[in-house]
Write a structure and sequence with these properties.
By secondary structure, the protein is of the alpha+beta class. The chain has 17 helices and 26 strands. Helix 5 links the parallel strand 9 and strand 10. The structure holds pyridoxal-5'-phosphate.
Length: 712
């Protein structure tokens, strides 16, 4: 009976007085003589009608333009149906089955996954204090679950049409030449650096075993492990607990003429590293820059246009000049303000954190609105679009998720795509997509290595590669997440703001993270007339957005004072980083334990000082030359650094105490390891959860401070 068109005799009349309707049979008779049917209608039912096309009929046809109603499944006894001389194709019936499953999946997910909806979603169940607040997690709705099920039903499995589409969409979002999907951020880092080892590069650019790659000591291990996995030598520079990022002033000290080939750094916890300094350094010595953007999707970085031109960032300038990319822009400063010390610089931009969704730089006005010479213009673009290659992770805590997954972004040199793809896909020379042949049009005309002429290009291997592809099902999920990304990024910024405000006043004991190039967070009380006006304007816009049904809640804005580099960073926060000061009446671990007791998710800055991890200690034991610490050889510069740190931090409003581990060659990474933790900012957090997190911390600090006072 499958595919037959029947008339269904209803035991009742409907509103139009009809008694029977056509329907399509989806199943054979079961043991009780029942059939599964879907009703057919000639009326328009928006969102619920699969139009029947001529090619969907196998035998005969209905005499009116009709559609099948997916939301009207019926199980009915054979005695209630009359077969017609009409039949539908097997493909059509299968597609109807698929629609039904997708519909059911959505209904299932709405019931099962309420707690995974975005924090701002009204369907989220109310938070009760005492319930677990994760630091991160998957945020999704029935859309992602439906996409996963739909792709599973297609059963393409390996990277295919969804993957291809996602690679294009992600490249567009990032403003890069190509994206290659991989099965994790760690794989992305491995593929990225492996691509730079290819013999197809000029000899002086190729990374060979024993060559050096500069990286940062504090962070995630698989930013560094791939450097060792290709046989190169990581050279560690220190990190700052103020930003969580590399101390780029150490780059010069880490450089070895003839040996250094690349810099590979992560934008830590959604805070861009000092890209301007790093790019100047890489340009000076003709080095590769790999940006590990795994934790920073949606961050933007702003630098003077003149500098961008000198650095050859033409790929970004070209996109910005077209004026249609939401994050890549050339603009002028809208406001000027002084830095924290009152050192006025009229070209300095003010706060970078009040942008709504993807508007790339809040204090910038499109350059088209006012003519200006390029020395007063600024280029803003996403992190991960400045260097040569960048990487993403799509593991659940990250800015979007595919379950497991990641991407390699080929920023501007298309040849790197072929090399990276080869390492991702078994090391093959052929670049045909999965399921395709002869893309090069000379599949049997190559002669490479010592293979016979005409050996099938599909099986020619120019590298010792891996297979690091994800499934197409993951890409189907990723594509839905990508559509949510602007909202996710905004939510991360909003959550950080809410936490920062909620914890204002605890600066005596806690150093809160600052965006790179910021010198201080200016608490709301210190706002000036100008910023108050701006805020009122934004709140008014948001109110009208709310009035018009938008989900956006008011988005408080922070002000920062900035250093005099004229560069700015706009963070898409992965987490809310806090470093406990030496004078605090509690330790980082005590605070973490209190958070655990209150079921509030908290994490360390990943591996802390990686050099102190057992894997690296063992590595050094096995091979003392396996890695270097840039400052280790240079105790003189260590002393200088300590002095600089002291002066620098005098610009921060609260007094700074030099790390107790300042005798270590990596005092910043040690401080992060010993005193830093972070809370969640992920888009699944609700306003109530964040208020509760802030309250728990405030109560804890107040209790400890009181105890300390009583004891003294
Ligand atoms: C900076 C950084 N790089 C790389 C990775 C690895 O990503 P994945 O877990 O997808 O392998 C992570 C993981 O969180 C990370 O934080």
């Amino acid at each position: 009976m499958i595919g037959k068109c029947v008339r269904v005799l209803f035991p009742f009349t409907d509103a139009t007085g009809s008694k029977d309707r056509p329907a399509v049979v989806l199943s054979n008779l079961d043991v009780r003589g029942d059939l599964d049917l879907l009703m057919i209608t000639s009326k328009d039912h928006p969102g619920d009608g699969i139009t029947i096309r001529n090619e969907d009929y196998q035998v005969g046809c209905l005499n009116r333009q009709s559609a099948v109603r997916i939301s009207r499944p019926l199980r009915i006894h054979i005695s209630k149906v009359t077969p017609l001389q009409i039949e539908f194709t097997r493909e059509f019936v299968a597609s109807l089955r698929k629609h039904v499953i997708r519909n059911d999946t959505r209904e299932y997910s709405k019931l099962a996954h309420q707690n995974n909806r975005p924090g701002a979603d009204p369907a989220r169940p109310a938070f009760q204090p005492g319930q677990t607040i994760p630091y991160a997690g998957r945020v999704f709705t029935e859309d992602e679950v439906e996409a996963a099920v739909s792709s599973t039903l297609d059963f393409w499995l390996t990277l295919g049409p969804e993957g291809e589409a996602m690679e294009k969409e992600l490249a567009e979002f990032m403003g890069v030449k190509h994206c290659l999907l991989v099965n994790s951020g760690s794989s992305a880092n491995l593929v990225a650096i492996s691509a730079l080892t290819t013999h197809k590069l000029p000899a002086h650019k190729r990374i060979r075993p024993g060559d050096e790659v500069i990286t940062v000591a504090a962070g995630f291990p698989t930013t560094v492990a791939p450097i060792l996995q290709i046989g190169a030598v990581p050279v560690f520079i220190d990190a700052s607990h103020h930003t969580g990022n590399a101390d780029c002033s150490q780059l010069e000290a880490a450089y070895s003429p003839g040996k250094t080939k690349a810099v590979m750094l992560a934008h830590a916890l959604g805070n861009p590293f000092d890209l301007a300094t790093t790019l100047v350094f890489c340009n000076k010595y003709d080095l590769w820059l790999i940006e590990d953007n795994c934790d920073a999707l949606g961050c933007t970085y702003t630098l003077p246009l003149e500098l961008a031109k000198q650095l050859g960032l033409d790929h970004l300038i070209k996109i910005a000049e077209k004026g249609s990319h939401p994050m890549i822009k050339i603009a002028q400063p809208l406001n000027s303000r002084n830095d924290a010390n009152g050192n006025g610089d009229s070209s300095i931009l003010s706060c970078a954190s009040r942008d709504s969704r993807l508007s790339s730089s809040p204090d910038l006005q499109p350059s088209t609105s006012r003519p200006s010479d390029s020395s007063t213009l600024f280029l803003t673009a996403p992190t991960g679009s400045f260097g040569d290659i960048s990487t993403q992770s799509f593991y659940p805590p990250h800015h979007l998720t595919m379950g497991e997954g990641g991407a390699v972004n080929i920023i501007r040199k298309p040849a790197l795509k072929t090399y990276a793809e080869s390492f991702r896909d078994w090391g093959r020379d052929c670049w045909c997509a999965s399921g395709k042949d002869d893309t090069c049009n000379k599949r049997f005309q190559w002669q490479l290595g010592e293979l016979p002429a005409g050996y099938d290009h599909k099986y020619i291997y120019s590298h010792l590669g891996y297979n690091l592809k994800p499934l197409d099902i993951q890409a189907a999920i990723g594509r839905v997440q990508l559509k949510r990304l602007p909202d996710f990024i905004e939510a991360r910024k909003r959550n950080w703001e809410q936490l920062r405000r909620g914890l204002h006043g605890l600066e005596e004991y806690i150093d809160f993270a600052l965006p790179t190039h910021a010198t201080a967070w200016l608490p709301p009380a210190e706002e000036n007339e100008e910023s108050r006006k701006l805020k009122a304007e934004i709140n008014e816009n948001e109110l009208s957005a709310e009035r018009s049904g938008s989900q956006l809640s008011t988005f408080p804005i922070s002000e920062f004072s900035w250093d005099d580099t004229q560069c700015r960073s706009n963070c898409s926060w992965f987490g809310f980083m806090m470093t406990i000061r030496d004078n605090a009446p509690f330790t980082r671990t005590e605070l973490a334990q209190e958070l655990d007791r209150k079921k509030i998710g908290n994490r360390m800055l990943f591996g802390g000082n990686l050099v102190r991890q057992p894997a690296f200690v063992q590595l050094k034991r096995d091979n003392p030359n396996a890695f270097r610490v840039a400052e280790e050889e240079n105790s003189e510069s260590r002393k200088q650094k300590a002095e600089i740190e002291e002066t620098e931090t005098s610009a921060v409003p609260t007094p700074f105490q030099l790390s107790t581990s300042s005798s270590s060659p990596l005092p910043g990474a040690d401080r992060i390891m010993n005193h830093t933790l972070f809370l969640g900012t992920y888009p699944g957090l609700t306003k109530e959860q964040i208020d509760y997190m802030a309250k728990v911390i405030r109560d804890f600090v107040a209790g400890k401070a009181e105890l300390g006072n009583a004891e003294s």
